[in-house]
Structure formats: C-alpha cells, structure tokens
Amino acid sequence: METTQTWHYGLVAEWWANFNTDGPEIEYFRRHVEQAPPVLDAGCGTGRLLVPWLQAGIDVDGCDASADMVALCREGARREGFEPTLFVQPLHVLDPPRRYGSIVACGVFGLGSTRAQDAEALRRLRAALEPGGTLLLDNQVPYSNTNQWPRWTKAGRDELPSDWLPAEPEWRAAEDGSEYSLQGQVLSFDPLDQSTQLVLRAQKRAGRELVAEEHRLSLRFYFRDELLLMLERAGFDSVRVEAGYTGAEPTANDDFLVYIARG
Q: Who contacts 124 (Cβ-Cβ below 8 Å, separation ≥6)?
C-alpha cells in the first residue's frame, strides 16, 4: 500500500507542539481508557493526549505517521520525566509491540489516506486490541464545516481554489520567543470520492529570519452509517456512537461523533 501523506512535519509539527495543547478530548478519552489499560494513542501527534495521560499514571504507548511529530512527543514526555514507547507507523500498517485494552484514534481517521487504507486501518486497529478491547475513534461529520460543505456542489467546486484563511498571517508567540503563523487553502474537492485536497502554509520568524513552508494533504469525509458499516466489516462486535466528547446521544447539530467499538 502507498505511504500515508501527512502535512504534520517541519514547521507544522512545531506549530502543533506549541499551540495545539488542550481540548475536551483529553479528559473525555481519559475517562474511558484509564479503566482499560494498556492504551495506544494511535495518531499521538506531539503528545496532546499522551503526556497528560502519562501524568495521570496511565500505561500508554503512542504512534504516528509523522516522525517529526513523534520526535516532538518524545521531547515533551521527557521534559515531564517519562520515556513512553513511541513508534512511527501509519494506521494502515499498524503492527504494535503489544496488544491493548483500549485504543484511541483522535483526529486522524481519513487524514492523508485512501479509502482502502482507512478500511485496512480499522482492521489493524481491531487486531491490535486484546480480546474484548475497545476502540475509541472520533470523526468530524462532513456537513459541519461551513466553508467545506458548499464545495460538494458544482458551483462550489467551480470557485476553487479558495482564498487563504486567514487572508493574512496571524502570528502567535511560542515560549522561546519565536513566532508562528498558519494559513489554509482548499485546492479541490471530489464529492464522489468524498475527499478534498488542502494546503497549509506555515511560517516562522525568529529575529530577522523568516522561514515558510507549504504542505499538501488530502482529507476524506465519512458519514455516520458509512463508518458504522466499515467498523462492522473490520470485525467489531458492537459500536456505540456519542456526541463528540460529551457522552450524550448524537444529534444532527453535533460537529464530531465518537465511535466506541468493542473488539
């Protein structure tokens, strides 16, 4: 299979490490996984979930398709006195060193992968669980983004590529004094494939030096019943769907859904 594409390297990985450090997902998933260790943070990034879980005493490993993200995750864990097991693997070739009581895939499904790779990823995640283990996977519904949803129409696609958002760089200061900005652009959309091609423009300035990078990535969209069928085909016995990070029953107004699948 082809290697998963990712934009989470270089300056984008540094931006994630500096600024993507909180969110309701951390505590929501922690309540689930702390009762069913060991845990795999599948798509751990720079450790947004993994490091707080280590601090809570949870036995957790991490993997990610980006070597840069894993390296930054390791640095962050070491600053807190931890040496977790971390490895570089995209989900569709997942082959971890042990099996897990629970696996969390937060913000990674459909990112930079093909439909066939996503189906294989679910099978690999199922195989990585201990008997009776649980996969917790979140996914943004296709109609949640007011900028993306009009692109499903021919008129919307004819307007692509989109303008940069934000239109001008918005700089954020990191702890070391350097500044970062991040802009996004939609290049194309394929409603039959339910995928879009995006580009991120990352910039960093430190003193008089300015560095800029542009990274391309695909994003694939899944509807609820479609993903439920994929989980069933991957071998999961039962699946419960919750409104994102609340534990409530989902409604049409929820932007994120969490799939809790039993192995």
A: 91, 92, 93, 94, 95
Considering only CA atoms, which of 202, 154, 200, 155 is closest in space to residue 179? 202
Single-letter amino acid, residue 104: V
Neighbouring residues of 206: CB distance < 8 A, sequence distance ≥ 6: 176, 177, 178, 179
Quote the DSSP letter at residue 149. G
Mapped onto helix, strand or coil, the DSSP state of residue 92 is helix
pLDDT of residue 145: 87
Q: Which two tokens stand for residue 149?
A: 């949803």
Cβ atoms 101, 211 nearer than 8 A: no
pLDDT in tens, 26-80: 999 999 999 999 999 999 999 999 999 999 999 999 999 999 999 999 999 999 9
Name the pTM for this structure: 0.95
Whose tokens are 């949640």? That residue is: 144
Specify the 3-state DSSP secondary structure of 18: helix
> Does 2 have pLDDT greater than 60?
no
Cα 173 to Cα 18, 210, 218, distances in angstroms:
9, 14, 28
